[in-house]
Specification:
Elements lengths: L36 E2 L6 E5 L14 H15 L7 E10 L9 E11 L2 E10 L4 E11 L2 H4 L1 H12 L3 H8 L1
Antiparallel strand pairs: 1-2, 2-4, 3-6, 4-5, 5-6
Length: about 170
C-alpha cells in the first residue's frame, strides 16, 4: 500500500519555479499544461485533460512521444508521496490503443515501491469511459537537485535578482 500523502505537500527543497516544464508548466506556451491533483482515495495523482491538434501523430490521434511524456509526468507526480526529488532513470510504455485528440482523457500516476535511491511507479492513460489506452512502468532515482542543477539554479537566481537592463538605462538618463 502506498504511503498516505498530505494534499498540501510539496517536495521539500524545491527552491526553484517549475513554471516552464513542458508537461506541467503553466507558462510554457508549447507545453501540455497538465495539472495533477491527489486522487479521491489519496493513493495516486490524477489529471483530466484533452489534447489539441498540436500534439498530433496519426490522423486524429496523439503522437507516441506525447503519450510517453504524459505517462512520465504522471509517474513523476507519484514521487511526491516519497517527498524526494527524483529523475527518470528508465521507463517502459505499453501503447494499447490509439489516443484520440480533442476527447476527455485521464492520466494517473501510482507509487509502487522504493528501494534505496530507486523509486518505482506506474501510470495509466485512460479515456472518459475508463478504457486504458496506454500504461507505463518507471524507475526514478532520488537526487540532490540543488547539487545536480547548481549551475542552472544559480543562473536563474541571478537573473531574477539582477535589475532589468532597460530599467537601469532609464534610471541613468
Amino acid at each position: 500500500m502506498p504511503p498516505k500523502h498530505d494534499p498540501d505537500h510539496d517536495t521539500p527543497g524545491q527552491s526553484w519555479k517549475r513554471d516552464h516544464c513542458f508537461g506541467c508548466g503553466p507558462t510554457n506556451p508549447n507545453g501540455l499544461h497538465l495539472s495533477f491533483v491527489l486522487s479521491p482515495g489519496g493513493a495516486s495523482y490524477i489529471c483530466e485533460f484533452q489534447l489539441g491538434v498540436n500534439f498530433s501523430g496519426p490522423p486524429g490521434h496523439a503522437h507516441g512521444g506525447i503519450i510517453a511524456t504524459i505517462l512520465d509526468e504522471a509517474m513523476g507526480k507519484a514521487n511526491k508521496f516519497r517527498g524526494k526529488d527524483a529523475v527518470t532513470r528508465s521507463m517502459t510504455v505499453d501503447y494499447l490503443r490509439p489516443v484520440p485528440l480533442g476527447e476527455p482523457l485521464v492520466a494517473e500516476g501510482i507509487p509502487v515501491r522504493m528501494r534505496g535511491r530507486a523509486i518505482y511507479n506506474r501510470a495509466e492513460l485512460r479515456n472518459a469511459k475508463g478504457v486504458v489506452l496506454a500504461r507505463s512502468r518507471g524507475k526514478f532515482l532520488i537526487i540532490d537537485a540543488e547539487k545536480m542543477f547548481a549551475r542552472e539554479l544559480a543562473k536563474a537566481r541571478e537573473s531574477t535578482q539582477a535589475p532589468d537592463s532597460t530599467q537601469e538605462r532609464h534610471a541613468k538618463s
